Each structure stands twice: as C-alpha cells, then as structure tokens.
Amino acid sequence: MSAWRTLFYEPDGRHSEIQNVGHEPLPDYKFTRSKPYQAGDSQPKLQSSEDPSPNDQAPSGPKVKDPSKLSFRCTCYRAGSGHSFQSMEVAAAVGAAVQDYFGWNVDLKNYDIEVVIWIEGPLVRICLSLNRLCMDFRGQLVDVGSTALRSTIAAGMIRLCQPRSGEIICDCMCGSGSIPLEAWTTHQNAYHLAGDCHPVAIDKCAANIANWCQRWDQRSPVELIRWNLCQFPVRPGTVDVFLADLPFGKRLGSRRENASLYPAALSAMAKSCVPVTGRACLLSADRKNLSRAIKLMSEYWTIARTIGVGIGGITASIVLLNRTATTNSAASVVDPGAKSD
Could you tell me which residue ranges the THUMP domain spans (predicted)? Predict the structure, then answer.
C-alpha cells in the first residue's frame, strides 16, 4: 500500500496527480464520470489513454465482488475555504483509483479498510483508519451542549501539556466536561478540578461525571465547582496545568465580549498558576482577540506552541502557554460581566 494515486478536480477541468515512488508507473487516467460515486451506483468509470476506445468495447454492468479481495471505503474531510470540489468528489476519485490499482471491493458499510483523506487548505493527507469506531464516540458524554468538545481534541490538548503525577489540572471553562473526563482517563495520578459559571453547563458536566462513575463503578474523578473565572477562588500559585475551551464568539458569546473576557481569563489563570513550571492550553477560533490577550499578558505568559485545528468546518487554534517567573498575586482582574456604578 505504498503506492497511491489521487485525482482532484481543478478549476480548468484537469486533474492533478500524487504518486509515491516504489511501484511501476500508473497509466494516465481521465475522468468520464458526470457525478460523484454513491452507494448503489455502478462503479466509477475511469478510462486510460492506453485502453482501446469505448466504442470498441462491449458495454458492461457493475463489477462482481471478488470474495478473495479486501473491501474498502473512502472518506474525505475538509477544512478551510476556496476548494473547487466537494468531499464526495474527492472520496469517489480516490476510491476509483484505489479499486483500479489494488482490485479491492467497494463496501461502504461492511469494509475491511477505510481510506481517509484529510484536506486542510492546500495540504492533503491520505491515511488508513486504525479504529472501526470513531474515537469521538466512546460513551464519555451522555448530556452534551451545542458547543461540546470532541474527546479527540481534548486528548490532544492534554497531551500537549504533558501532565505529571501529583499535579493539579484545572479546566476553568468545563462546559459538558469533555476535557476533565479525558484528563482523568489518561492521567489518573493527577488531581482534577473543573468549573463553569453557567448553571446549565454545571448540570451537564455533573450528569456526565455521574454516568462515568456508574459506568466504571468508581467515585467521582473530578472536583466540580461553580465559579466565575474572573473571580477565581483558587489560591495563588497552586494550579500546574490550565485547560480551557474558550468561547468562539459564534454560538456562545460574541467577539466583542471576547475582547474583554480573554485578557481577564489569562490574568486570573496567571494569578493561580505555578510560576515557571505552570502551563496553559487554550482553544479558540477567535484568534485575533486571543493573540491580543496574550500580548497584553506577555509579562506572565510566553507562547510555546501553536497548532491549527478544524472544528466543524471552523478553523481554530490550540495555543500552549508557559508561565513566567513573574508573580501576579497583586494584579487586578477585571470581570467583563461586572457593571460599574
């Protein structure tokens, strides 16, 4: 499986090729399909310049599956804008090339191998799925909100922070509880705190923690508290790792509110975070306000790493911050929700 040929539409109707070295050259295929391949359709028609003319061949129906061959399906995920093709078109093109080269059977449900195509802007990755069941659906959450975070993204954020045994890990905007439950699953020797200011989020997180306890027959792995992050009740210099899925300003909040919320949140985290060794991992699609807040709090935080991630078609960023040695115990934290007299 070291040789792949992928065909993608271009604005002028031509196709581009990606071919790895290691096998004999592949013939030059040209598309004759008028629509993407779907379940129940006949096999996509590919014509090689080396093949005889279609007029010289007898018409043929759908190919009969060979039980001795593997079955597969192709799935395409895209992020970003400006693509002149649809995900189904990419999946159909790659699937046609894979079937023609390897001779595998197409089966969208009972497949042996899933070929996954990830497209983010101009970058294309072709992968093989390792799990039959998506890691997003592992039964961690039974009560979710409109902005619940995927378990896979939560696991990636936790891995970036590299928590150690005995450290205090805090999700200060826990929402439905994706991050704290995932953190306990991977780092059971740490102490886990979670909180939110919204009562609905607290209720959902409590329901998910209760389901987790019942499922694994254990006590609650997370200390859940209702708090206002801008008036954080934790002692200064005690939290080792902060994790937060910040409001994007789309489904929840607004960009205007984020302009004052982000600096206040970073200031509160800096006050309670352990100097020098403390870390914070933040997720947000409002990159402008997040960058501005980090610059305002540059005395207390330095950027260690920034990673782009696609969430439901939205391009977001995960930012890993390291705490500086500057203390913030006397810094004033402005509550963006407070009203002046």
Answer: 1-132
Among 52-61, 117-126, 277-286, 321-330, whose mean pLDDT is lowest? 52-61
291 pLDDT exceeds 90? Answer: yes
Question: What's CA 118's distance to the chain center, in Å?
Answer: 12
pLDDT exceeds 90 at position 338: no
Q: What is the pLDDT of residues 179-214, one digit of tens each?
A: 999 998 889 899 999 999 999 999 999 999 988 888
**Which contacts of 182-185 are long-range, i.e. CB under 8 A and separated by 24 or more positions?**
182/140, 182/151, 182/154, 182/155, 182/158, 183/154, 183/158, 183/243, 184/221, 184/222, 185/140
Provide the 8-state DSSP code for 174.
-
Helix runs in 164-198, H state only: 178-186
* Geometric angle at alpha carbon 117, from 114 and 121, rounded to 5°: 165
- Find tokens 């003319």 and name the residue: 53
Full set of structural domains in the chain with CATH = 5-128 (3.30.2300.10), 151-323 (3.40.50.150)
* Residue among 232, 223, 246, 242 nearest 175 (CA): 246
Run of H or E residues at 110: none
| Three-state SS at 210 | helix
Q: Residue 39's CB: how many other CB atoms inside 10 A?
A: 9
Q: What is the pLDDT of residues 76-90, one digit of tens each?
A: 988 777 888 999 999
Backbone phi and psi for residue 315, each to the nearest 5 degrees, phi listed first: -85, 115
Amino acid occupying residue 38: Q
- In 217-285, which ranges are continuous DSSP H helix? 255-272
Is 126 in a helix, a strand, or coil?
strand
Helix (H) / strand (E) containing 89 = helix 87-102
**CA 273 and chain centroid, separation:** 26
Q: Which two tokens stand for residue 75?
A: 């799935």
Write the single-letter amino acid at 161.
Answer: C
Sign of CA dihedral 82, 87, 88, 93: positive
Q: Is the pLDDT reported for residue 97 higher than 50?
A: yes
Kindly give, in sequence order, each residue whose CB lies less than 8 Å from that of residue 173, ignoring residues fewer than 6 positions away. 196, 229, 244, 245, 246, 247, 265
